Amino acid sequence: MLQKELMDTTDAERKRQIKILIQRMDNKEREEKKKQLKELKDKEEKEMRKQAVKDGKKPFYCMALLYWNI
Predict the structure, then answer these.
(1) Considering the domain boundaries, does residue 44 fall inside one?
(2) I need a surface site. Which of 37, 40, 56, 70 has the fewest CB within 10 A?
């Protein structure tokens, strides 16, 4: 929809605004995907740790991992 408006518009200022809006939407979508991926990885890691504790292994906590959110 915005792409079509971008092509149809002749006003330079309006084109600039539309380009900025499209870029903002793309960035937001990319960041949302990145956030979902991180949440999924965190959830999987938490499940692995739970399973390891159930299997009788001691929990492993590394301060560097906690500090840097790895």
Answers:
(1) yes
(2) 56
What secondary structure letter does DSSP report for 55? T
Full-model pTM:
0.62
pLDDT in tens, 22-63: 999 999 999 999 999 999 999 998 888 888 878 887 766 655
Does residue 59 contact residue 53 with C-beta atoms inside 8 Å? yes
Domain range enclosing 41: 1-55
Taking the alpha carbons at both ends of the chain, their separation in whole angstroms is 39
Q: Classify burial at 50, counting beta carbons within 10 Å of its beta carbon; exposed 0-12, middle 13-18, buried 19 or more.
A: exposed
Question: 59, 49 in Cβ contact below 8 A?
Answer: yes
What are the φ and ψ backbone dihedral angles of 58, each rounded to 5 degrees? -80, 145
